[in-house]
């Protein structure tokens, strides 16, 4: 039986990844500060612990795994990343996790590691035009991320690839672009835009209004969770180390996103634009490289992903009433 370790298995992407690996017949160990928020973990062994603690990491990485997925990070949506209030924690916590995990893997001769980077590492100056952002992989330098979260991701990318060169490891780096879907965070300040808009629309009356940060003309692309897991597995099991984008190239404005959510809800919703943290003006996944190297690119439409996600968020709201 093949074995896998998922770091960050209590999180949104990690819990879905564990479920997929179990369906493929893997024995899976998960580790995180918490269990998944919305369902029981499918992991065979789940360790509650802090990956900033090297002793804990050494206990978790105590054997040779066929595949290791390092998704653990201090992260969140715009309300967490772009206020500036959490910068030190974001950089310190995530860097410590990556340093600890990589060194423990090296000592145990675990070579096959997938690292989840982020589109937030792309330069701000290439994302000022909402209609023509440049997020091709080779546009990363000269570096100029718009947040400390992005700077840490860029550093850690280089760390994993340096271990490839210096220690003969097979680390691969995927740059995630706004992953969403059922069982993702949907309230509390760390939620991403699709979940936030689904929550707001679900709680609004038909014909009512919701608040949105900015003018809504900022652009993004959003990738459904099942597509994210598929892309991650394909990269891990390929000969390509990356970095490579794992995202959708269906770019929409945030105003358009609200219209899609309203369509899923069958509601007429208007928008009240207010001040708030925004991030870059435009961002879209460039999928030419992943198509060339892996022979794959995501295919699920954003509207279909919203149609699958909205009812789940409605069910969560009803549980709170």
Please give the radius of gyration in angstroms.
Answer: 19 Å
Describe the main β-sheet briefly.
7 strands, parallel
CATH topology heading of the largest domain: Rossmann fold
What is the CATH superfamily classification of the largest domain? NAD(P)-binding Rossmann-like Domain
Return the structural class: alpha/beta
Poorly predicted spans: none
Task: Give the CATH level 1 class of the largest domain.
Answer: Alpha Beta
Any idea how many domains? Answer: 2
Mean pLDDT, to the nearest integer, reads 96
* H/E topology pattern: EHEEHEHHEHEEHEEEHEEHEHH
Number of helices: 10
Strand order of the largest sheet: 3-2-1-4-5-6-11
Number of strands: 13
Can you offer a commentary on this structure?
This protein has 321 residues and is α/β, with parallel strands linked by helices. It folds into 2 domains: 3-177 and 225-246, Rossmann fold (3-Layer(aba) Sandwich), CATH 3.40.50.720; 180-221 and 250-285 and 301-320, UDP-galactose 4-epimerase, domain 1, CATH 3.90.25. The chain has 10 helices and 13 strands. The chain has helices spanning 12-23, 54-60, 78-81, 87-107, 148-167, 193-203, 225-236, 254-265, 288-294, 302-320; strands at 3-7, 27-32, 45-48, 67-70, 113-118, 172-176, 179-180, 209-213, 219-220, 223-224, 244-246, 252-253, 270-274. The strands form 4 sheets. It has a 7-stranded parallel beta sheet with strand order 3-2-1-4-5-6-11, sandwiched between helices. α6 (193-203) crosses α8 and α6 (193-203) crosses α10. It is globular and about 60 Å long. The model has no long low-confidence stretch (mean pLDDT 96).
């Amino acid at each position: 039986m093949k074995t896998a370790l998922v770091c960050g298995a209590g999180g949104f992407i990690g819990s879905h990844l564990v479920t997929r690996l179990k369906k493929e017949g893997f024995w899976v160990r998960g580790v995180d500060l918490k269990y998944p928020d919305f369902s029981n973990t499918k992991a065979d062994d789940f360790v509650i612990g802090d990956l900033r603690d090297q002793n804990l990491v050494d206990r978790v990485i105590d054997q040779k795994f066929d595949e290791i997925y390092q998704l653990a990070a201090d992260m969140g949506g715009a309300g967490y990343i772009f206020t500036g209030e959490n910068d030190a924690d974001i950089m310190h916590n995530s860097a410590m996790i990556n340093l600890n995990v990589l060194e423990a893997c090296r000592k145990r001769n675990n070579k096959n590691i997938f690292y989840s980077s982020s589109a937030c590492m792309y330069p701000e100056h290439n994302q000022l035009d909402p209609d023509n952002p440049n997020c091709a992989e080779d546009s990363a330098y000269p570096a100029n991320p718009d947040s400390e979260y992005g700077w840490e991701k860029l550093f850690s990318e280089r760390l994993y690839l340096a271990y490839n060169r210096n220690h003969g490891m097979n680390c691969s780096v995927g740059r995630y672009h706004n992953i969403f879907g059922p069982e993702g965070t949907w309230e509390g300040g760390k939620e991403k835009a699709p979940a936030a808009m689904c929550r707001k629309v679900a709680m609004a009356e038909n014909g009512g209004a919701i608040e949105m940060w900015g003018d809504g003309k900022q652009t993004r692309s959003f990738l459904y969770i099942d597509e994210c897991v598929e892309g991650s597995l394909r990269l891990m099991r390929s000969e390509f180390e990356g970095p490579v984008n794992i995202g959708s190239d269906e770019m929409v404005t945030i105003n358009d996103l609200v219209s899609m959510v309203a369509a899923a809800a069958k509601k007429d919703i208007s928008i009240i634009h207010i001040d708030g943290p925004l991030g870059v003006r435009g961002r879209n996944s460039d999928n030419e490289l992943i198509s060339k190297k892996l022979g794959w690119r995501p295919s699920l439409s954003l509207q279909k992903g919203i149609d699958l996600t909205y009812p789940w968020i409605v069910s969560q709201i009803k549980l709170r009433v």
